[in-house]
Amino acid sequence: MKTIKKVVLAYSGGLDTSCAVKWIHDTYGAEVICFSAFIGEVKDKKELVQRARSAGASEVYIENLKTDFVDEFITPALWARAKYEGHYFLATALGRPLIARRLAQIALREGADTVAHGCSAKGNDQVRIEVGVRSLAPQLRILAPLREWSFSSRAEEIEYAKKHNILIEATKERPYSIDKNLWGLSVEAGILEDPWVEPPVDTYFITRPPELAPKKPIYVTIDFKKGIPVALNGRPMSFTAVIEQLTDLGGKYGIGRLDLIENRLVGIKSREIYEAPQAEILHTAHEALESLVLDRELLHYKRLLSEKYSELVYYGLWFSRLRKALDEFFASYQNRVTGTVRLKLEAGRVNVVGRKSPFTLYSEGLATYSARDTFDKSSAEGFMKIWGLPYEGKAKSK
Ligand code: ARG
After folding, report:
1. Is 179 a catalytic residue?
2. What is the pLDDT of residues 310-334, one digit of tens each?
3. pTM (predicted TM-score)
């Protein structure tokens, strides 16, 4: 087996990856460089560096990749209406290929022979990172310490960290596995592993319980330009700022909570809790605008592709040609998705209450039941005759 000399580790600052720095160094005698991507979780940069160094990292890369995340991952996911199994907005799944790409780039730049990650052997994230890295730089070796080491509990890891003076978070941990980024938050494990148990209050981090939401609903307008949110309540701002503000506002109203049984790629059914007020509100708004400006056939066909797209993202196939081709399809008509959507936020819910666009296909003259009607009623009869021609009398025969 070839020896490992230099490793770039996707480092979160948590217990697993902190132990992994030391463990890789001791097990393989390799130099370990840490890489942390900031894509929406608030972390203290200095603390992260200290922790990585205390575990033996020779270098620590910390990069703010929020803009790349929004432009290259969230935007296409919004356009694609990406929701795995119809519900999950794919926050975690969208973040991984970005991390994988940067991990591979840093490894190549540093002349490393290996990349490493802190994903477990049972999840989807290992697939996304590893398939991502392999798609971009197949020559890199991939290490997954959590699949190799002999720690069998977090307690053992804590003991290991203490023994080796590795700095770990002092705050009492919640007993869940959590992943957070700009597009939402995923929570699993602990008591949630019993699918009959209602998620306790401490399962939720960014949303209030809907019963504690303000009693008075609030109205919000979102302006879109070519498919991109450009203003909130008439105030121009970046898409990132829209996301951040809607996370706070939607969270206050308890919007975007999900409790799902999900089919993992690795064949396991798992119980997952999600919070994504921003994704719920923005998908609702974008969809409302598309339904105004796109024709029926395009809208219907899109649904089929959304399903496939969501699977590709979930399955770690971000770097596939099909995903790219589908993105081109969804992008091809966004130049019409310009306009304003008015939404009403109330406890646990977001409802569309108004939409307008210079590209609207809605014709009040055609739709109205009033005297202003412009629809040619005389053609209706002929339309039915021809439309129903193949079926005439056919219901009689067996
Ligand atoms: N089940 C979700 C997914 O596969 C969330 C994974 C969450 N990851 C985590 N480390 N908690 O995308």
Report:
1. no
2. 999 999 999 999 999 999 999 999 9
3. 0.96
